[in-house]
Amino acid sequence: WQAPEDVLYEDIRYHRAEGIARITINRPEVRNAFRPETIIELLDAFHRAHLDPEVGVVILTGQGELAFCSGGDQRVRGDGGYRDAAGTEHLNVLELQRRIRSLPKPVVAMVAGYAIGGGHVLHLVCDLSIAADNARFGQTGPKVGSFDAGYGAGLMARTVGLKKAKEIWFLCRQYDAQEALAMGLVNTVVPLAELEATTVDWCRRMLQLSPTALRCLKAAFNADADGLAGIQELAGNATGLFYQTEEAQEGRNAFLEKRPPDFSTYRRRP
Length: 270
Ligand code: 2NE
What we know:
There is one protein chain. This protein is of the alpha/beta class. It is built from eleven helices and 13 strands. It has helices at 36-51, 93-102, 118-125, 141-144, 151-160, 162-171, 177-182, 195-207, 211-223, 227-243, 246-256, and strands at 5-7, 12-17, 20-25, 57-62, 67-69, 82-83, 89-90, 107-111, 114-116, 128-132, 136-138, 175-176, 188-190. The strands form three sheets. It has a seven-stranded mixed sheet, sandwiched between helices. The protein has a four-stranded mixed sheet with strand order 5-9-11-12. The protein is globular. It starts with a strand and ends in a 14-residue tail after the last helix. Bound molecules: Salicylyl CoA. Salicylyl CoA binds at residues 30-31, 33, 67, 70-75, 91, 93, 114, 116-118, 140-141, 144, 146-148. Hydrogencarbonate binds at residues 139-141. Belongs to the enoyl-CoA hydratase/isomerase family. MenB subfamily.
């Protein structure tokens, strides 16, 4: 048993219990739209979940039943990005997308209500998406003068196929949960009343599994789409595992003991 941990933020909530970190966008009055400060808090929360050895799985969700996230807060959109309180314009949600991808633990989007615009891309970059039957998905960029030509386009195409991805972006339609399931945009659809229980059940199942295997698999799934940064994630796991071998430790020990390394006992495996 671990003590629950709650961390105080303004725009989001962070709660950890039973190895699960739950990160909730808490701006229901704007359908959980994000402003730059929301993203700064989310970056911090995901970093916290990354570093916490007690956390094995992360849930990203929105407060309430009406929305997961409706994307960038249009009220603070300036001419070159989203304005923070000091007037600086940001597109820092892109950094958050990368952080979710590079977090070496599964991230599950728990979606009730709208996942729209930049909020839709946020669920897309999560490893798994569990949708309530009231969930609605879509991009609005071309309607509101915006687009996401990074993961929003490329990962979308890898997820639902090129034709469907173009339809999503070119028509700016909304799709219900069953349509999203049919196109492979979400993993499952459950009644709204069962959303939380199902999500926690899926998380508990993953917590039973090898964390190293899940970590390496996540990096493997991301590697090609993420280019050298993706290969770096995957390769970093190999380095971390190699460091745990006597062979690697012989190199370190020899340096510290100021002697030549002796790798002669380590066999070349086929
Ligand atoms: C999300 C959606 C479909 C919900 O519709 P509905 O009918 O359920 O609610 P309603 O009345 O539209 O919204 C409730 C309140 O939330 C605000 C609304 O203005 C409204 O406020 P009041 O009238 O009550 O004062 N609200 C909702 N979304 C907001 C937003 N994103 N920013 C600020 N206020 C918002 C419907 O609300 C909708 O379509 N929302 C807009 C979705 C959208 O276009 N998002 C931006 C896409 S661009 C983006 O996210 C992006 C990007 O493309 C690239 C980089 C970074 C960001």
